[in-house]
Amino acid sequence: MLPPGAVLFDEPMARHSSLGAGGSAEAYVRVEDTAELIRLLGWALENTVDYRFFGFGSATLVRDGGVSGLMVKLGSGFKAADLERQQGDDVFVSAGAAFRSKDLANLCAARGLTGAEPFGEFDGTVAGALFAKGGETTPAFAPAIEEVTIVTKEGRELTLRGQALRFEEGALKIPRTSAVAKILLKLKAAADAKSHDETSVDDPDSQMRLARIFASPCKTKASVLIEEAGLCGVRVGGARVSNRDANSIVNEGQATARDVAVLMSLVRDRVKDETGITLMPLIDVIGER
Question: Per the CB 3.0–4.6 Å rule, which of 95, 151, 171, 197 could disulfide with 99?
């Protein structure tokens, strides 16, 4: 059904996570185009096999006990971004689900287009940005989204537009069993469009990390609340709260998923004790303990 090497069994998800930590997936599957994705979802539906979609691992942590079913990675056929057309002052740009979110923001800025800047705030893929919960009803990039193409578990390609594009707590509302294939943005030309600043490769906290761990329910940012609670640099095992961005957790080399989960709980509890504010977790923690 898929090319050789497309399926890896008992695959450590630490190899695919931006944090470099996490247990194994029963099967890690890479699909390179929509045809392969449709075949895989059809097989999973027929055989009652559970599955999840996995991007850069920047918002998902697999517990050390591992996760059953399939972890599905969208490959090369979902990584393109192109200028589709221009109609008057509107410029339409398409991007595959696996295209890097920050790269999309930078690409649009380089072409003098505005409206895609909020994608630069996310470490993961374009699809990941669509599902990144942040507490807001509608994410900042939503006005720029013209349409989203999805593939359902039955293998149907659907294009969502207008009122069909619904967000709850900042995340696109579609079934978990459906995959985003690509998006189409409607942008404007602007001479002052700015690229997203990348973290310096010399920054010790720039590698193997999870960013945007929490959202704050109040006007004060989660990073500020965590820093003011004196948590910068606090460690559990090999996991540490970043000194550069307090709302990030860094893997110092040997962190386990348990280290990260315990540190997340510690941070949330300490902020609650210090301020009375309960931070909202943005990282999906899945699998067996």
Answer: 95
